[in-house]
Fold this protein.
Amino acid sequence: MTAPTLASVRAAAQEAAKAGQLLPHQLAAFSALDAALTPEQRQAFTADWRAKAANPLSGFPYFSQISADGSDGVNGWRQCQTSSIAMCLAYLKVKGINDDTDYLKIVNRYGDTTSQTAHQLALKALGVRARFVQNCSAAQLQAELRGGLPAAIGILHHGTPQAPSGGGHWIAVKGFVDARAWIVNDPYGELDLATGTWARQGGGSGEGLRYSYANLNPRWQADGAGTGWAWLFS
């Protein structure tokens, strides 16, 4: 058997985590890998296996879609999806993405900043594993975050939580408080979730906000539980 690298063991563990269980042949494969590891590799793998992702995700960046220096251009007000995804990409250390304008340049090659297709093509060009879903649940989003992965979610930001409306807005989610709130970076500012109006705009006003489940989930899952729009990176 070829000596495994730590990366190959990590890849096998990721597959097992997705499946939720180990089949007999997979358990045998893990046993063979374990036997071939050096003590140093085994120790490093054990540390990674037992590690827990920080909540909220540590070092998660903030990008404003309406930057004061004008770098977002005259259309910054409609670039929430781009800025939210860019925050996720920068956190994931995607090469060449240091701010939202880096990612915007790539999106613009394929279409409009509001187009999911343009983002799919941009992400593919970057070699990023990502998918756009319209059936994300709160439990799935929490699972992504527990696994150390951020997400960008689309919400209806106008109206009340009981009757949300609007053309839509995107925010980056980087953590959660059990049974209480999502920890988010809102690229436009701080949204008053009760009224659907902006409490603050621009600068760093949207960084590290706690948006309550009670007021955000109805805006995110407007058609009922498990109907959330999201960009996931698992």
Q: What stands out?
A: Residues 6-50 form one domain.
